[in-house]
Design a protein that fits this description.
By secondary structure, the protein is of the alpha/beta class. It has 2 domains: about 220 residues, Spore Coat Polysaccharide Biosynthesis Protein SpsA, Chain A; about 45 residues, no CATH class. It has 10 helices and 8 strands. An 8-stranded mixed sheet has the order 3-2-1-4-7-6-8-5, sandwiched between helices. Strand 1, helix 1 and strand 2 form a beta-alpha-beta unit. Helix 1 packs parallel to helix 2. It is globular and about 50 Å long. The model has no long low-confidence stretch (mean pLDDT about 90).
């Protein structure tokens, strides 16, 4: 592996003009000199708003075509990528400053590794830091089936092993394809290292796909768990521990920032989500 390999950042986008420019600039402003940013417009229907953003940045590799879905688009980007290393970043997320250089240096230094992952923080719709931490983000990749703690935007992997092992995304999914993909990677014999530094920032907002289609996401997650015959008792224990940890943080923050009213509002929100 050479000391400055080409890195392909792959982004599928559908009606994503609102936050797309923030992502483009976060990649463009990296301090690593050898990046191609591939953006595929998956048939956006926003009166040309997404394409208008893309047209402003001639350094991008981008194209538009009819809609085929998020995971088929990510596969298309992977097959088109010229980089030795790839990373998939959604159109509403951010690549943290210095992230690409950090990831590449780790892979070059440890040439036996096929991939590395780092920390992920969260931001709100305005780009402000989201106060809640990601529980267990330093857990080994073997725990990804229980915690889903490694988002693909903080995961840098060499392209060749993905193709050799045919580790493409399952395009039959609409929401849980990245979760299922990461499980297959964790169960392969790929060598994955950990970097204890932030590599990306996920944006939490009302139009986020997981927020808008929560029931579908949960149904697809159940399919994944059944497919991989996950031990239900262990899964319930570990996932409950994860969510208890996260909700404790959220309750604490709500109480600190808005008092008892904030706690009541948060509990009411959780109740509505659970019983809708």
């Amino acid at each position: 592996m050479n000391t400055c390999p080409l890195v392909s950042i792959i982004t599928p986008v559908y009606n994503g003009s609102e936050y797309l420019e923030d992502l483009i600039l976060s990649v463009k402003n990296q301090d690593y000199p050898n990046i191609e940013h591939i953006i595929i417009d998956d048939g956006s229907r926003d009166n040309g708003a997404t394409v208008s953003v893309l047209n402003r940045y001639p350094h991008l590799r981008w194209w538009t075509r009819f809609n085929v879905g998020q995971y088929a688009t990510m596969n298309e980007g992977l097959l088109a990528a010229q980089g030795e290393i790839v990373c998939f970043v959604s159109a509403d997320d951010i690549v943290s400053p210095g992230a690409v250089k950090i990831a590449v240096e780790s892979l070059v230094k440890n040439d036996s590794l096929d991939a590395v992952y780092g920390a992920t923080s969260h931001i709100d719709s305005e780009g402000n830091p989201y106060p809640y931490p990601t529980p267990f983000q330093w857990a080994p990749i073997s725990f990804v089936i229980y915690f889903a703690h490694i988002p693909h935007c903080s995961f840098y992997i060499k392209k060749a092993p993905l193709l050799v092992r045919e580790l493409l995304f399952a395009s039959s999914f609409q929401s849980a394809g990245d979760y299922e993909w990461m499980i297959r990677i964790s169960q392969s014999n790929l060598r994955v290292g950990m970097i204890k530094q932030e590599l990306s920032r996920i944006r939490i907002h009302a139009n986020q796909a997981t927020q808008k289609h929560l029931n579908r996401s949960l149904a697809e997650q159940d399919i994944v768990l059944k497919t991989y015959r996950v031990n239900k008792i262990l899964y319930q224990f570990l996932s409950s521990t994860y969510f208890l940890n996260l909700r404790t943080w959220k309750l604490s923050y709500a109480l600190k920032s808005r008092g008892i009213r904030g706690v009541f509002d948060l509990v009411e929100k959780w109740y509505k989500i659970s019983f809708r």
